[in-house]
Amino acid sequence: QVQLVESGGGLVQAGDSLRLSCAASGRTFTGYAMGWFRQAPGKEREFVGAIRWTIATTYYSDSVKDRFTISIDNAKNTVYLQMNSLKPEDTAVYYCAARVLTPSGGRWYRTSPSEYDYWGQGTQVTVSS
Predict the structure, then answer these.
(1) Residue 92 DSSP code
(2) What is the pLDDT of residues 81-111, one digit of tens each?
(3) Is the dihedral of CA 94, 79, 58, 9 positive or negative?
(4) Selection from 19, 47, 18 nearest residue 33 by Cα
(5) How far apart are alpha carbons 73 and 62 in whole angstroms?
(6) Which of 70, 81, 122, 125 is least enclosed, having the fewest CB within 10 Å?
């Protein structure tokens, strides 16, 4: 059974940094892509970025590119979201998600929440101005 557990959220000030963790368990994730999403109150869940587990290729949304970085620690089976230069508009619940990569071709990253197979419970990030 796949389990994803996020941690590291909190209350920070604008301009600060924060690192979120997603501990993955339940299987080997070499054939997976991991995504980070966020959801602010009253808004739809928004794609933040993704990483391909095996080769650590990354892809980011334009709103976080150059500020956020996703990485993987294979020894710990953990995915990280390093968030720098945080802004009040980054305030949201942040979710980790996993999707199985298939050999059907096309882009390895997907930006729609519906294309992910497993989800964590989320961690709150609040950025004050």
Answers:
(1) E
(2) 999 999 999 999 999 999 999 877 678 999 9
(3) positive
(4) 47
(5) 25
(6) 122
